[in-house]
Structure formats: C-alpha cells, structure tokens
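Posted in: Structural Biology > Protein-Ligand Complexes

Title: Requesting predicted complex, 6-phosphogluconic acid in pocket

I'd be grateful if someone could produce the 3D structure tokens for the following input. Sequence and ligand are given below.
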Amino acid sequence: SQAEIGLIGLGVMGSNLALNIAEKGNKIAVFNRTVDATRRFYAEAGALKDQIVPCETIEEFVAAIRPPRPIIIMIKAGDPVDQQMEALESHLAKGDIMIDAGNANFRDTMRRFDALKDSGLTFIGMGVSGGEEGARHGPSIMVGGTEESYRRVEKVLTSIAAKYDGVPCVAWLGENGAGHFVKTIHNGIEYADMQMIAEIYGILRDGLKMSAGEIGEVFGAWNKGRLNSYLIEITEKVLKAADPLTANPIVDMILDKAGQKGTGKWSVIEAQNLGIPATGIEAAVAARSISSMKEEREAAEKILGLPSMGEFKVADKAAFIKDLENALLAAKIGAYAQGFAVMAAASKEFNWNLPMPTIAKIWRAGCIIRSQFLDEITTAFAKAPDVANLIVTPAFATMVKETDGALRRVVSAAVLGGLPVPALASALGYFDSYRRGRGTANIIQAQRDFFGAHGFDRIDGADSHHGPWGSGLGA
Ligand code: 6PG
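-- Reply #1 --
Done. Output follows.
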C-alpha cells in the first residue's frame, strides 16, 4: 500500500517526527537531500521499518505517497524552504499539500501560501513544539492552511500529537499563516517564561546567596504547586545536575550568553505592528540581547560597579521564597495575557478567527510552555472567548489580586538590591497601567498639541480640541 504521508528532511526533528508517525501506525515515505542520511535513518529504524519507505529520488518519493499527497518539509527555516518547495513543485499534482513544519516567519508562510494558490497545490504552515522529545513522542501541533487540506492530514497529526487527559494537542487554527503565527507567539511566551524564571533564579542566587542545589530544591517544591509546568520541572533538573568535568553544578559552569533564533523577536515586532503591548516578551528578548554582550557587561561592571545598596536584606526568608513563587505566577499571568492579546489582535488583522480556548487547550501538553496553568487559561477562555484581556476574566482577576502584592514586594526588593528584573517589573508595570482608569497620557496629549497642534479629546466631551498655548493654537 502507498504511504499516508511523506517527509523531507531527516535532521533530528524530521527523523523524530517520522519515527513518531511510523510508530503510530501510519506508513510514511521519507526523503533527504543527502542519500546517506536516508540510509542511516532507515537502518536505525528497527521495528518501525515496515512503516517506512526510504526514498533516494524525489520521483520515487512522490510516487510512494497516496494522493492527494501531504508532504512535511522539516528543514532549516528561511531560503532552504523556498528552494525545497521549488524543487518539489514540478513533481506534484493538483491537490497535493506541502507542509512546512519548521519555525517559519508567518509572513513567509502567507507568501508561500499565496504563491501556490494558482498552481492547484496547497500549503500548510504547521507550528510544532516540544523539542526533540516532543517530535518523537508527542508534540503540540498548530496548523494553518485551508480547512480542507487539514482534514487530509488530521488523522495522522491526531495520532502523533501529545495528549492532555486523552485530548490530542493539535488543531486547525485558521487560514494561511495562522499556525505559524500562533507558534511564534508560543515561542514569545516561552522566552518570557524562561526570562522570568532566570530573574527569580538571580534573586535566589545573588540576593539570598543560595547554591544551585538549594535553588533546585525550591523549584522542585514549586513544581508541585500552582507553577507546575515543564519549564519549572526542567529548571529543577538543570540546577541539580553536576558538571562531569569539574563536579560543580553544571549551571555554574555555563557561560551567561543566551542565543536566539528569531521567533521571540518576531513576536515583539508583530505586537508592535498591531499596537498591542507585549512588554514581558519584549523584556525577555532584550534580556537575551544584553546577555550576549558579555564583554561589554564585564567592562561596564569595572567602570560602574554593581549597585551598592549594601546587603540584600529580607526579614523572613521562607516568607520571601513564598513571595517569589507568587511573584512568578503573577508575572506569568501578565506575559500570557499579553501573548493572547497579541493573537486576538492578529486574528482580526489577518481574518483568521483564531480560537483562543483551542489554542490554550493544545498548549496544555507536548509544547515547551505546557502546564497546568494552561488548563486554567483554557477554562477561562472557554467561558469568555471574546474577553478583552485574560486578566479581567473572573478566575484570573482573582489570581492577579492574590499574587500582585508578592510581585510588588519582590520587584521592590530586587530593585533596591540592584538585581535586574526587567521581565518581572514589566508585568507589574503592565498590571498597574492596565487597571488604572485614569492614566497620565493627558499630559502627552497636551504636549503633542503644544508642539504640533495635534489636538486632544476632552473628558467632558466639549467641542474644544486645542489648549491655550498662545500663537493661535488655543481654541
Ligand atoms: C519549541 C521551541 C523550539 C525552539 C525555538 C526557540 O516550541 O519546541 O520553541 O521551537 O526552542 O526555536 O529557539 P531559540 O531559543 O533558539 O530562539
């Protein structure tokens, strides 16, 4: 019988995805640009060989798949995807579906989707989260494209997706770039989550002077509570791991320079394009950038020194650690609220009709930000899918009120102690601005009117739109 699906690109992610597909009982044809990788992959496939058709030419590969042919492309994002699509196109027939499963910029996905429109071929942009393990045993899958093309692959994707209480973490989220956009925001939130964890770690390490192992214990305890999540779980494991070379905690031996491949930055750019504040993600992306300036930071420390506010003082260590837990939860709520607000705005802008409860639902398992918390978000959006902001849903408003005091104390202590907490502070600033009915932009409006006659609206609705600044500007 013919293969149900094809996959091009047998790197780690592609290989793992292919093995997952085969293991779930779906016959799959595979192809790689270099034949060696295909042979090696097949040789190591063990008991799954029966479900795998290794192909050495594109012709053989295409012929092996049942039409209309869904073909997953899992290669480096960017130009290689365009080149691969071009090489493939002439071999395909009407109705065949090219599926880009990499971390594509959704604007590229929209372009590729449109470019194929007249060819009779279709295109799916598919966000896949969960790293190497997820790809092998159950990722979270965010699909964008035509609904019809999704139906062709739904069965296979459902079989390989992670399950949360038996519910598969895969969904069709909308046309063209919807899936890759949602994956981008997932990654933006991932950046914020990771940065906030890093800031809390910094307070424990540099403020409370705790060892990596002790901090690992704290994260371990938190993972049993409301912060329960994959990222907290791996943070404990990371903090408790020893370096094989020196026997020191491995984290103490790792250079403090973080890499980034672009999805966090794209989240921020798109948030700005849409006019939606995503300050937690912005702070996280900026923090990675500053982390990469290692030499500059070392030089600046020599010139400026560390802030000299004396010892980092807390009256009650246990109570402060409880505050740190609640502060992290509060800040997390802020970052997720922002991420979902960006998606809501994008949904309108690009006519996607993104289903918020479904997005939260398919992030509960499989992906990097998976957590119990996302189940709570799922419930909140299911009750109020069109709410303006997650933090005004009843459940999350309660959570914010329960935890923002802790966030305030933690940010204050960190600021006074000279410890950088840009992402935590951004969440506090966001809450404090968002919940305040009367803000301070009246002064900005007055300034704009003063220097540029831009005009303003009045609180009393009177029909007078300029201030009495003189030279004819006063109306
Ligand atoms: C995932 C991850 C994965 C990867 C990103 C971010 O959801 O499985 O987000 O896609 O970690 O590419 O990588 P950077 O941190 O290098 O930007």
